[in-house]
Amino acid sequence: MTSTLTTVPFVDLKLQQQPIQTQIEQAIAAVIEKGDFVLGQVLGEFETAFAQASGVQYGIGVACGTDAIALGLQACGIGEGDEVILPANTFIATAIGVLHSGATPILVDCDPQTALIDLEAAQKAITPKTKAIVPVHLYGQMVSPRALMELANSYNLLIFEDAAQAHLAEREGYRAGSVGLAAAFSFYPSKNLGAFGDGGMLITRSESVAQKMKTLRNYGAPKKYVHMELGTNSRLDTIQAAILKVKLPHLEGWNRDRNLAAEQYDTLLLPLRQQGITPIQNECENGHVYHLYVIRVTDECSIDRDTLQAKLSEFGVQSGIHYPIPCHLQPAYKHLGYSEGDFPMAEMLSRQILSLPMYPGLSSDQIHHVVASIKSVLGINQ
Ligand SMILES: *Cc1c(COP(=O)(O)O)cnc(C)c1O
Fold it and tell me: How high is the pLDDT of residue 1?
């Protein structure tokens, strides 16, 4: 058995920062020197760099990913009276964003193998009021662009991607954020590309959406003191943009690291399928950027998810649950009128899923320790 002295954290942000710390400090110092803290030069540079890396022309930095969804939907012309389809198993911010745009969120179930939105369920939820679908590229895996576009084209829906977990993910030749009219990203510190605080961005191929978004994030003013929209104050700080701009060239390498770690998990976990442990299926191979590596502790397993999680922590292995309560069962969302049993797959996953340690620089020894610990908990000889 592996030594129980090894501990494996769930994420390790320091590890990623250390090699570029001096560069980041210099970039921060340059902003302090220049003093353009709000809507400064480096913000524009980072917006263009990130949008282009994602395969579109325009990027508009905002305060957080939630605002990128709320304001982004408005910039796309979505609002009161419109229905917007989104998965029930996502981080609550997707639903908050839709609600704050003024639109009505319509939740649908997911595919239990991939945990991604079930597009057949989405199709069934379409009404004459449906204006948009918000696919969530959950855990770093993209929803199939081909399938999405087929559905959106048949019903004249707009695609607005929640790509908060999928920076530079790829599938069928598309990068995350380049499939729909617009897409929202988050730069929350633990996302694949993270700031030193909150941050977000809307990216789009449309010049008019970009213009409207710039107005909305800046008090609805296309020109100083001329307020054409209600808008709000939601801008990505120049300092955060400077940090993110230093990190951006490393993102592809970090994503590759995550993908390789996932491959190693997959291989080591393969024999545990008979014991009821199955990883969430990867349908986009190297294009999956593994924001999270998630396994299912199915009903065939001798213990339940919560027991496994508790026992793993005794072995020094930290884990997470993304997410323990689906959106439709959250107390604040009662008024949407959903109840238990409405989305059986999302509900089942919320009881089965466990996110294992995943971050760039996670070592092979640590991955072995995680899997060996799971085997020990399940009483499997190794
Ligand atoms: C993180 C996240 C968001 C929200 O981003 P914030 O920057 O925290 O507001 C939205 N959707 C998903 C799927 C996320 O993971």
Answer: 47
Closest-CA residue, ligand 1 atom 6, reads 65
137 CA closest ligand 1 atom index: 13
Q: Is the CB of 118 under 6 A from ligand 1?
A: no
Residues 104 and 142 in one domain: yes
Q: What is the pTM of this model?
A: 0.97
CATH code, domain with 188: 3.40.640.10
Q: What is the model's pLDDT at position 382?
A: 73
- For residue 168, which of 62, 282, 290 has the smallest C-alpha distance? 290
Pick the atom of ligand 1 nearest to 199's CA. Answer: 7
My answer on whether 243 and 255 are in the same domain is: no
In a shared domain, residues 367 and 265: yes
64 lines ligand 1 (CB under 6 A): yes
CA distances for 274 relative to 269, 271, 378, angstroms: 10, 7, 12
What distances in angstroms separate CA 368 from CA 117, 362, 363, one per listed residue?
Answer: 31, 11, 9
Q: For 146-197, what is each residue's pLDDT tens digit?
A: 999 999 999 999 999 999 999 999 999 999 999 999 999 999 999 999 999 9
Question: Is 22 contained in some domain?
Answer: yes
Decide: helix, strand or coil at residue 346.
helix
The reported pLDDT for the residue numbered 2 is 46
Ligand 1: residue of 136, 165, 292 to mutate (most ligand atoms within 8 A of CB) is 165
Q: Report the distance separating Cα 361 and Cα 235, nearest Å.
A: 31
Q: In this model, does residue 381 exceed pLDDT 90?
A: no
245 and 264 belong to one structural domain: no
What are the Cα distances from residue 238, in Å, to 44, 52, 60, 78, 287?
9, 19, 12, 28, 30
Instruction: Tell how far the Cα of 2 is from the centroid of ligand 1, in angstroms.
Output: 36
Q: At what angle do helices 364-378 and 305-314 cross, to 10 degrees?
A: 120
pLDDT in tens, 121-144: 999 999 999 999 999 999 999 999
| CA pair distance 53, 221, nearest whole angstrom | 28
Six token digits for residue 343: 């989305």
Taking 80 as the threshold, does the pLDDT of residue 3 lie above it?
no
Domain count of the chain? 2
